[in-house]
Amino acid sequence: MSLPQRERTVHFYELHLASRTTAAVTNPSCAPLGPLLSCFSSMILSKGLPHNVRKSTNLHTVLADWRYDAANNCYILLINKANAALSDVALRDLPTTRLRKAGKTKTEGIEVSAHIVLRPNNGNRTASVLLTMGAGVSAADIEFLLNALSRDAAKDPQHKKLFYFDDPSGAVGPDGLSNQYKVSYIFAAHAHKGQTLTAALETGEFESMDLIAHDQGQFDAGGNLQIVERSLSVKAAIPETVTGAAVINAVRSFRKQPDGQMYDKLRVRYKTIAGKSTSATLDLDHLDAAFTLKERIEFDTDVEAQQDSLSPTIVDGLVPLLQSVPT
Question: pTM of the predicted model, to two decimals?
Fold first, then answer.
């Protein structure tokens, strides 16, 4: 498995923190997300890297690197996933035309790396997450890692203040100290749907759009070639003047025409606040609905698909994207 050497696609998520307890407490207290991540960081670095995230017959996921960026108040992670099920690269000898596999054994997996940025947000219960795609690492892997680290931290007495809180009844024990109850934490990542078409074109710049019709029909006489999609491409004479409202109004007006009724999706391409081209596909019936943020970052030098430590090139492209989401 390989990734483009000069670019990465980045998806945005929002990490949610929740607490729970077995005690008779209706609304259990919750430690701020920042101190919890700081706790996990010190724990990970003291044990050493790489750190196993999870392992199965064909997959092995490890945390290969973990750093704190004080200037941007964010944690930057490198998660590697090795997949034994991925097919080995084939090599052909050109003079003899003989074909052979490159040599991966059945117990070896092709490893690819994903870079992740975690930034605690205001309010102490959420964090913005940026994840480079294409390595097979998902938001579920981040959830699994943080939930596992939380369980490990809870077992260590030095982290007690993050997991034990005074009983809201105010009851005290024989020693005169407040009775306490223990909480556990759940981390859940959700796709960041914090941007609408209007907001995207307010901070970025329209490039083009395609109206898409999912139409099925026969393309050739024999019926072997089938039409599955039709599209209508639209560009602007002055792209910087196009607003979300202008697009929404124009699309609604076009769909009232006989030849516009067949279209049901809109793929809009635009430059983000960081000046990078990206796209979003929206339902024409819900053009003002929020959609998942994603970005594409480009590099001046080649970056390999696998790293043992954080790549400064990728990190330098990732961290500025934090400005795209509010704290």
Answer: 0.77
**Where are the extended beta strands (E) located within the chain?**
7-20, 51-55, 59-69, 74-83, 90-92, 99-101, 110-120, 126-132, 164-166, 180-182, 184-191, 205-213, 217-218, 226-227, 230-235, 265-271, 277-283, 294-298
CA-based nearest residue to 53, from 139, 154, 155, 158? 139
CB atoms within 10 A of CB 40: 21
Rounded to 5 degrees, φ, ψ at 288 are -95, 10
Of 69, 47, 238, nearest in space to 149 by CA: 47
3-class secondary structure, 285: helix
Cβ atoms 211, 231 nearer than 8 A: yes
Q: What is the pLDDT of residues 106-136, one digit of tens each?
A: 888 889 999 999 999 999 999 999 999 999 9
pLDDT at 220: 84
SS3 label, residue 154: helix
Q: Which residue, 148, 114, 106, 119, is CA-closest to 131?
A: 114
> Which of 248, 239, 233, 249 minimizes the C-alpha distance to 207?
239
Q: 10 Å Cβ neighbour count for 125?
A: 15
Q: Of the candidates 136, 140, 163, which has an alpha carbon nearest to the alpha carbon of residue 28? A: 163
Find, among 57, 52, 76, 80, the residue nearest to 66 by Cα: 76
Looking at the predicted structure, is the pLDDT value of residue 166 above 90?
Answer: yes
Q: Cα separation of 128 and 112, whole Å? A: 23
DSSP letter at 41 equals H
Q: Measure the CA–CA gap between 172 and 170, rounded to whole angstroms.
A: 6
Domain boundaries, the chain: 7-191, 197-291
- Measured between alpha carbons, how far apart are the two ends of the chain, in Å? 35
Instruction: Work out the burial of residue 102: count CB atoms within 10 Å of its CB; fewer than 13 is exposed, 13-18 middle, 19 or more buried.
Output: exposed
Q: Which of 278, 254, 129 is nearest to 201 (CA)?
A: 278
Bridge partners (DSSP) listed for residue 297: 8
Alpha-carbon span 84 to 104, nearest angstrom: 9
